[in-house]
Each structure stands twice: as structure tokens, then as C-alpha cells.
Design a protein that fits this description.
By secondary structure, the protein is an alpha/beta fold. Helix content is 32%, strand content 21%. The longest helix is centred in the middle third of the chain and has 18 residues. Bound molecules: zinc ion. Zinc ion binds next to loops.
């Protein structure tokens, strides 16, 4: 079945298709609080988009009404660069029953993301030019936001021999990873790092010592003992983080640590950065906001790898964001079918569908005073953009002349997570039914509105423009 057809009955989706079809040449967003950490902008003002690019910087208001523009009134809303997700799983090719590039990018748009980087654990895996070309052309034809592929480190993700990293670089990958699996063989990882330097691309590692996590289903601690579930100790992650940091130091390669989840990993990365090792790191919204207690009750939607940890780990991860030990927040969006997750805890696959709840759940940290709004936005825009680099254009900024990728959100709006309304085929989230405070109101990709909340009014050109412009 074509997933796009499955979504057709959603009236909002149908409306959005019509909106997309009618490309907006000029759009004025006014009266919003514009926050662009890349330019140190935080002020109320207007933003003008013309021919897909930012034409007016965020300072001050456009003084006179301009009848030739479509207009969005962003009063009370935050206007920021389009969010960037360094880590998601789009499942196509090979696992289209879980997600497709079409549904995954629609979920991204609803979540405020205009750029998403997809992991190569598809079938076939993204280990050669033909599959990368397939992902890029499918994204161009069916996707609604930018999809940047990540290529495999090893052929077939088997951890035995290197993929053709040069071919992958020329095919346009932005990094190399065997995510889902660690690269167990230290010698192979050293070779991968050596090779990656020639292409200036980072190695993204899923840090897990499999000998220590075998049979593990959740974090090792009091709760795993109480539930009698196989456990994954923090040390399993930290051992691999330490090894990879040592190899990055040895080779001089760029290393990016995926989904950091423990206090010990944060300490190791902080120390490595102080030593000048070229390391960056990401953390997921779920590791920042949920603890292992979510597994009480055996909710398979809380089964994720690395596992949800403890309050102490969360505090260390937040500290890591605030002192720039951790550079970026990435969703690790991992959609699964309901049948996949409707089984006993031990048999369920790992993963949380995260694109559509990311901003709402992360805003809880802002409301609690643990992150500033500017820091949060920076970790979702300018910082991941630095890791990607400029080969796909300048991302993560509202600078004049750059592609108009923009997210508009209401920091205070409360909404209930209704997985039935997800664009993602993956309804697997432990947040189903929760109330989140902070909602994406509109997502603009290259000047086109690719998502808009029903309550936000777009005044199309020719109609009257209200005051305040
Ligand atoms: Zn992973």
C-alpha cells in the first residue's frame, strides 16, 4: 500500500498538499520573537522571504504594509532557523511498513525539522552510490524537507571491511556510521577514521560494547533487578566512548558520538575536548527528559537503545549541553509498526518515534529553567549545521540570502500527544497521551510552507493586511 494514500483522509494533510502546490513567492512573518543563535539575534521583528531565501534580516519591523506578500502574524510565537536532526531512521528502502521517506519527512515537518540526516541501516544498507542516489532521488520526489544521507562505515554494516568511503563521499553522504551496531573491531575503526580524514567527514559511532549488553533490555540498576529484565550497564557505552576518543586522538579524525546517555560518557567527552580531540556529540530528547522508570509496567514503547537512564544521568546530560560538551540534540527517530511493539518486552525492537514530540518535550527543560531558549534552539539549528558543514548550503541560520528554512513555534501552547495524528507511521512513543507545553505552529522549507497548525492564519496576498506590520 502506498503510505501517501494512507494519509490522504487526514484533512490537514490534504490541505498542506494544496498549500505546497501553491509555492509562496513572498512571505512576510511579522511580530514574532526571532531567535537566531548563529547571528546572536533575539528580538521581536519581521522576516521577509522572497524566492525561497531570507530577504530581510530579523532586525526591526517592515514599516509599511506590502500587499504583494503573503503574511503570517507570529505575535507571541518564536521564529527560528528550521530545526536540523542529525540522526533519524527513515526505514526506506527495505522497511517501508515502518516508515518511508515520504511519511518520515512529513513527520519532520510537523516536528519543525527542515533538515534530517538519515541513518544507513536500511535494506539494502546505504553502503554504495546506487542506494544513496535512490534515497536522494526519492527524497527529492516524495519528501517535504531536506534529507541528507549518512553512509555506512563497513560494507553491509557487518563490521568486517570498510565500505567504499570515497564513493560514498562523492555520492553526497554527510558522515559515516554503522548506527544500530557499534564497530566492534578497533582496527577497522582506526582504518575508518584514517580514511574519513581524506574526505573531511565525521565518523558517527553508536557506542556499545556488545559483550556487556548481550540480552540487555533496559538500563542496569535497581529497576532492572526489580523487574527481572536483562540489563545494559552504563559501562557498556562508556568503554566504547573511551576507545573511540583514543582512536580519534590517534588518527586526528573527526568523531561524533551518537545518543550520549550516561554521566560517564559526558565526563569522557568533556575531558577529550579539553585535550583538543576533534569530537562532537549529540543527545536525544528522550534521554534528556525520561528515566528508566518509564519501563516500570513493561511499556515496550519505552524500550530504546541506549536505554533510558537515571535522573543523575539526565542532570549530567543537561550540564553537558550547557557547557558545550554536547553539541547537538538529535531525535534518533526510530519508527516501528504497532505489531512490532505489541509483544512481550523481551521481544520488542528498540526505538522511539521522536520527530513529532521532540520540540514539545524539550521545551519542558526550558520551562523548568534548565536550558535557555537560545541554547535549546542553538543545539537544534546552528550547532548541528556546523557538524554537517556547508556542502548542502548554509544551514541553521536566518542570515540574509540563505535558504528560507524556518520554524515557528508557540513556547507555551499545551497539546496532547495523539499518535493517531502523527504523520509518522511509527506510533511508538512512551509519550502517547501526555501533555506537552510547546508546539510547532509552522514549518517553512526553502520558502514553502510544509506544515501549518490549523489555528495559525495565513493571509494570502490581495487580502487585507491587519495592522502591526
Ligand atoms: Zn544508535
Amino acid at each position: 500500500m502506498n503510505p501517501a494514500t494512507m494519509l490522504a483522509p487526514l484533512t490537514e494533510e490534504t490541505k498542506m498538499k494544496e498549500t505546497r502546490a501553491k509555492a509562496i513567492n513572498s512571505l512576510l512573518i511579522h511580530s514574532g520573537r526571532i531567535i537566531d543563535p548563529s547571528q546572536r539575534i533575539d528580538e521581536t521583528g519581521s522576516l521577509l522571504i522572497s524566492n525561497g531565501k531570507i530577504a530581510w534580516p530579523g532586525k526591526g519591523e517592515v514599516t509599511s504594509p506590502q500587499p504583494e506578500y503573503d503574511v503570517l502574524n507570529a505575535k507571541g510565537l518564536i521564529v527560528c532557523p528550521g530545526l536540523i536532526d542529525l540522526h533519524c531512521h527513515l526505514r526506506q528502502p527495505g522497511f517501508e511498513e515502518k516508515e518511508t521517506i515520504a511519511t518520515g519527512t512529513q513527520a519532520a515537518a510537523r516536528g519543525g525539522f527542515t533538515t534530517i540526516c538519515c541513518m544507513p541501516n536500511t535494506n539494502p544498507p546505504l553502503d554504495n552510490q546506487a542506494v544513496i542516489d535512490y534515497v536522494k532521488s526519492t527524497a527529492a520526489a516524495e519528501g517535504v524537507v531536506r534529507v541528507l544521507p549518512i553512509g555506512c562505515i563497513s560494507r553491509g554494516r557487518k563490521g568486517k571491511e570498510l565500505a567504499d568511503m570515497g564513493e560514498l563521499a562523492s555520492a553526497g553522504v554527510i558522515a559515516y556510521s554503522d548506527d544500530g551496531e557499534p564497530v566492534i573491531d578497533s582496527r577497522l575503526m582506526r582504518q575508518a577514521m584514517d580514511r574519513s580524514r581524506a574526505f573531511g567527514l565525521p565518523i558517527i559511532d553508536h557506542c556499545e560494547d556488545k559483550a556487556l549488553t548481550e540480552g540487555g533490555l533496559m538500563n542496569q540498576g535497581v529497576i532492572s533487578t526489580k523487574l527481572g529484565l536483562g540489563a545494559m550497564p552504563a559501562a557498556a557505552e562508556e568503554i566504547m566512548v573511551a576507545r573511540d576518543l583514543a582512536l580519534a586522538e590517534l588518527t586526528g579524525a573527526r568523531l561524533h558520538i551518537a545518543h550520549v546517555s550516561t554521566e560517564g560518557s559526558v565526563d569522557l567527552i568533556r575531558h577529550a575536548k579539553q585535550k583538543g580531540i576533534k569530537v562532537t556529540a549529540e543527545v536525544t530528547p528522550h534521554h534528556l527528559t525520561l528515566t528508566e522508570e518509564k519501563v516500570l509496567g513493561y511499556d515496550t514503547n519505552a524500550k530504546v537503545n541506549p536505554p533510558l537512564r537515571t535522573k543523575k544521568d539526565i542532570q549530567a546530560l543537561i550540564q553537558g549541553l550547557n557547557d558545550n560538551t554536547i553539541d547537538a540534540i538529535a531525535t534518533d527517530h526510530a519508527p516501528h509498526t504497532e505489531a512490532d511493539k505489541r509483544c512481550e518486552f523481551a521481544l520488542a525492537p528498540f526505538g522511539i518515534s521522536g520527530l513529532e514530540t521532540a520540540l514539545g518535550s524539550l521545551m519542558s527543560l526550558v520551562h523548568a529553567g534548565q536550558l535557555t531558549l537560545t541554547t535549546l534552539i542553538s543545539k537544534l539549528t546552528g550547532e548541528p549545521a556546523k557538524i554537517i558543514g556547508d556542502r548542502y548550503g548554509k544551514l541553521g541560520t536566518l542570515a540574509i540570502g540563505t535558504l528560507a528554512d524556518i520554524t515557528i513555534f508557540d513556547p507555551d501552547r499545551e497539546w496532547v500527544v495523539n499518535t493517531r495524528a502523527f504523520a509518522s507511521q511509527g506510533k511508538n512513543t512512551p509519550l502517547a497521551g501526555s501533555v506537552l507545553k510547546g508546539k510547532v505552529m509552522a514549518t517553512i522549507f526553502q520558502g514553502k510552507l510544509v506544515y501549518k497548525d490549523d489555528s495559525l492564519k495565513l493571509e494570502v496576498k490581495g487580502e487585507s493586511i491587519k495592522g502591526g506590520v
